[in-house]
Each structure stands twice: as C-alpha cells, then as structure tokens.
Amino acid sequence: MSARERQARAQAELVRALGVGDPVPQGFDESRVLAAAQSLMSKRRRGVERTWPRLASALGSDFAPRFEQWARANPMSVEPDSRAEGRRFAQALRDEGRLPGTLSRDLLDFDASWRVTPSGELVPRWGILLIARRHDTTRRRLWALRLPGGRVLRWAPEPHLSVPTTPPGVDVPRGT
Question: What is the pLDDT of residues 109-146, one digit of tens each?
Fold first, then answer.
C-alpha cells in the first residue's frame, strides 16, 4: 500500500470518528478527536434546534439524546443543511412512531416547499403541487396545495361527529 493510500485511509477513519463516533484511528490524539467530535455533534444539533424549533420544543429534554443517537447512525451529507437534517430526523421519528402529532402540519408545509434529494441536498419546489397525508395522531387527511410563487394553502377537514346510536331493540322516548 502506498503512502498516499495509507493517508487516504487514515483520513477516512478520522472523518468517521468525527462524524459517527467510530473508534479514533492510531496516530491521533484520542481526547482531542473526541472533543472535536462532540463539538461537531453539538453544532449539528443546535442547527436543527434553530431551524426546527417546534420539533425541539415538542421533544423537550429528550431532543438532545434522541438527535445524537439518530445522528450517529446517519452521517451528515456532503453539503450539510440544518433544514434537511431536521426533516430527515423528523422522518426517522415518524417511522418509529415517536413524532409528536403537533408536527404533522410542519412537515406538510416543509414538503410542499422543499424536496430533499437522495444525497441530502435541499431543492426548492416549483409550480403547482398537491400533497395529501394522514395526520400522525388523529389519522385525519391533511392537504397542502403549493401555488406558483410559493404560497401554500392547507386544509384539514373536521372529523365527522358520530350521532350516538342506541342498540337494536331499545326504545328511546322522543319529544317529551
């Protein structure tokens, strides 16, 4: 193995140690690498807290440990963006069934305005777009219509109130 290949391998191991918590490669000061990794994780978490404040407040004190656990399993994209990171984190919470229901509309609004590419890049949406999705807790349909110019109209129909019915064979007095 050439010196260039060894250096490339050591750099890749260092990046993994900084980004996802892999072991620190030989030849690097472990305490400094761990301090830098914690600093990068905190910066990443604070960025998501700033761009997704409702997500951070809905999770409360659980936000930091949950985000850090998720972030260790999901490395940053090449061009990190806190909005995309927050969206990916919220989707992971939704997939686990742990997303607070108050955030369903926020995700709908975000998806009506932005598209996250597979590489993690944010791309603004153009033109007319209609999105239909179920609310996470109430299971009602939520609709968003993105109009040219970026205006987003939302609509969530009210649930139908069921009229209490009486079991068959029970007489109910009427008009007393």
Answer: 999 999 988 877 889 999 999 999 887 777 788 899 99
User: What is residue 123's three-state secondary structure?
Assistant: strand
Q: Residue 42 is encoded by which pair of tokens?
A: 């905190």
Helix (H) or strand (E) holding 124: strand 122-124
The total of other beta-carbon atoms located within 10 Å of residue 49's CB is 18
DSSP per residue, 131-166: EEEE-TTT--EEEEEEPTTS-EEEE-PPPPPPPP-P
CA distance 146 to 153: 6
Q: Are 106 and 54 in contact (CB under 8 A)?
A: yes
Selection from 20, 74, 37 nearest residue 28 by Cα: 37
